[in-house]
Design a protein that fits this description.
heterodimer, A: four-stranded antiparallel β-sheet, 12 helices, globular, B: about 350 residues, alpha/beta, four-stranded antiparallel β-sheet, disordered C terminus
């Protein structure tokens, strides 16, 4: 599938990923047949509404799916190395060293009992062969780089002494500690006020440009994606509905779900009496419709949509999983 | 829109302080001072019949405290609140005013009793205010309300957990409409919802406003949502309104430096590539607000006067509908072309 994948040799490639959560009387499929790749230095946005499977996809890549959840099919490659079937100890080394993570709530990512300096040096020394002194120096450099004022004083403070925006900067410093090649950022700005959000996004973009780090940016906020991502994948009910360059997906969406989603976002630039609305809600995981998962809500539904599941197919510059575009 | 024609709700210099001092023993032993949090510090605005006033600002700016002051969950420390010309700040809960204003909360999971059937949730205000006598009348009214918000009559027999977030917010709206109010206070009503569901709820609220002539106070941190729903917008910063203007004016030519900063920070879908002026700094600790204009430490136009004197909300020269609390705007120090609106 060209286009779904990157042009150059990808840093990360996910192929046919399926994540299942066995329940007492059924198996929930949170992610089903998801394939995409990220090039070195690229920002891939992943959008979708709650329950679309975006966070589960991110967790699968860093090997943080909680049992009994499991990767049931597919493979995840980092460079030319397969990482989804690594033993836990090896995976732990990949996580942090090669893949950094930034989560929504900075407070839960930091240990409240340790100073941020201790948390940073510990992470640095776990992954890099540095003396305690050199590790502390690197921690100071990282804090300076993420824009924390007076790092020499702040390094010995505890997380509660930082504001929300400053904490998220610390978390980004932690994610960058071992100079990873990929950062998975799951709703990194959702808990922050809009002015702080702008600062964090600017920071992430700058750091990735300077270090050549690739980012998988998971968010429900299309505005953040529009400003940050190179390509975007739109997820619906555990599948990718559409994937392509960000400008094309936003301005020329091919999938009816993407179109509905774009129309439903209130914009400062446009004056609209009513917002486009997609009636109904996303199906629950135990009752995903046959065929195309979006068909009960789709204004263009026809017979084939109810029976056969569409794969991603090229439409203009993007790829959409929609029978409207089958030839 | 003539906001001053017949205001339904008026706030006149309303303030609410909270005493957050440490306990007496700590104050004596550790020589800690009394501390007063000025959550809302002199807010004035009015809302006309059928109008939507949007209130925006970042966390901790006092938006929700304003909402709670109006419904009477807090008593103001000073100032007057009037509803349809009558003072309500001192009288406390008065049944007729209670009935005429209702509130919709952010979290549709927390604001509905999980043990009650939807029909009972919606019927509660009807029973409490004795708006219908017989069980048949109540049932008929509940059924009509559920249909009005786009649910089915049969949904009344279900429990809240059987509904999605958007449907629960519809139940909250049906409950709020049960007393036939004239005024709804909506505190982040769509912030917990996904965008496609948010669009459904916003469209519903707009339709109900047209049908029933409702006035809204719409509180949100999301500027795009406020732009979509509001007629006029008040921007709050650290307990004060810094700018109050009709929605088109505010978004087309924001005056106050804080409003400009907020608008510049909003990520938009247009991909105009406009440079994001990420203004540094954060909202200061409200326990120790800066002297003078509270925004001066982050303001690129701050001068000596801003550090000394609190600016008052004043009409902008030649602009009868726009009020701004900024010395720089008042003195004409801010070039209009410095900011090109999106």
């Amino acid at each position: 599938m060209p286009g779904v994948m990157t042009a150059v040799a990808p840093l990360l490639s996910v192929e046919g990923l399926r994540v299942e959560f066995p329940m007492r009387d059924a198996t929930l499929v949170a992610v089903d047949g998801v394939s995409f790749s990220i090039a070195p230095g690229e920002v891939l946005g992943v959008v979708g509404e709650s329950g679309a499977g975006k966070s589960v996809t991110g967790s699968a890549i860093i090997g943080l799916i909680d049992p009994p959840g499991r990767i049931a099919a597919g493979r995840i490659m980092l460079g030319d190395r397969r990482i989804d079937d690594l033993p836990p100890e090896d995976l732990r080394r990949v996580r942090g060293r090669e893949i950094g993570a930034v989560f929504q709530d900075p407070l839960t990512s930091l240990n409240p009992l340790y100073t941020i300096g201790r948390q940073l040096t510990e992470t640095i020394m776990t992954h890099l062969d540095l003396s305690p002194r050199a590790a502390r120096q690197r921690a100071l450099d990282l804090l300076t780089e993420v824009g924390i004022p007076a790092p020499k004083r702040r390094i010995d403070q505890y997380p509660h002494q930082f504001s929300g925006g400053m904490r998220q900067r610390v978390v980004i410093a932690l994610a960058l500690a071992a100079n990873p090649r990929l950062i998975i950022a799951d709703e990194p700005t959702t808990a922050l006020d809009v002015s702080i959000q702008a600062q964090i996004i600017t920071l992430l973009k700058r750091l990735c440009r300077e270090h050549g780090t690739a980012v998988m940016l998971i968010t429900h906020d299309m505005g953040v994606i529009a400003e940050t991502a190179d390509r975007v994948a739109v997820m619906y009910a555990g599948r990718i509905a559409e994937i392509g360059p960000v400008a094309d997906v936003i301005h020329r969406p091919a999938h009816p779900y993407t179109r509905g989603l774009m129309g439903s976002i209130p914009s400062i630039a446009a004056d609209r009496e009513t917002l486009a609305q997609i009636d109904g809600t996303m199906p629950r995981l135990h009752a995903i419709p046959r065929g195309c998962a979006f068909h009960p809500r789709c204004p263009h539904v026809f017979e084939r949509c109810r029976k056969e599941r569409p794969e991603l197919m090229p439409v203009g510059a993007t790829h959409a999983a929609c029978w409207l575009h089958a030839h | 829109m003539q906001p001053d024609a017949q205001p339904l709700v008026e706030l006149d210099n309303v303030a609410r302080y909270f005493d957050v001092s440490p306990p007496w023993l700590n104050r004596v032993l550790e020589r800690q001072r009394r501390q007063v949090l000025k959550a809302v510090d002199g807010v004035s605005f009015s809302i006309a019949k059928g109008e939507t006033l949007g209130l925006v600002g970042e966390s901790g700016c006092g938006k929700s405290t304003v909402a709670r002051l109006i419904v009477g969950l807090y008593r103001p420390t000073r100032g007057e609140i009037r509803f349809a010309g009558r003072r309500i700040d001192a009288t406390g809960p008065d049944p007729t005013v209670r009935r005429a204003m209702q509130m919709i909360f952010q979290d549709p999971y927390a604001s509905l009793n999980p043990r009650w059937r939807v029909a009972d949730i919606v019927a509660e205000p009807i029973r409490a205010h004795e708006l219908a006598k017989s069980a048949r009348d109540i049932n008929a009214r509940v059924g009509a309300l559920l249909e009005q918000v786009g649910l089915a009559r049969a949904d009344g027999a279900k429990y809240p957990h059987q509904f999605s977030g958007g449907q629960r917010q519809r139940i909250s709206i049906a409950r709020a409409l049960a007393t036939q109010p004239a005024f709804l206070i909506c505190d982040e009503p769509t912030s917990a919802l996904d965008v496609s569901v948010q669009a459904q709820v916003l469209n519903l609220m707009r339709r109900l406003q047209h049908e029933l002539g409702l006035s809204y106070l719409f509180i949100s941190h999301n500027l795009a949502v406020v732009h979509h729903v509001a007629d006029r917008v008040g921007v709050m910063y650290l307990g004060r309104i810094v700018e109050l203007a009709p929605v088109k004016r505010l978004f087309a030519s924001p005056q106050h430096p804080y409003t400009r900063m907020l608008l510049a920070a909003v990520p938009d879908l247009t991909l105009t590539g406009k440079p994001r002026t990420a203004v540094g700094g954060e909202v200061p600790n409200p326990l120790e607000p800066p002297r003078g204009c509270a925004f001066h430490p982050r303001c690129p136009y701050a001068e000596e006067r801003c550090r000394r004197e609190v600016p008052r909300l004043k009409h902008v020269a030649g602009e009868p509908v726009v009020t701004v609390a900024c010395h720089a705007v008042e003195e004409g120090r801010l070039a209009q072309e410095a900011f090109k609106a999106a």
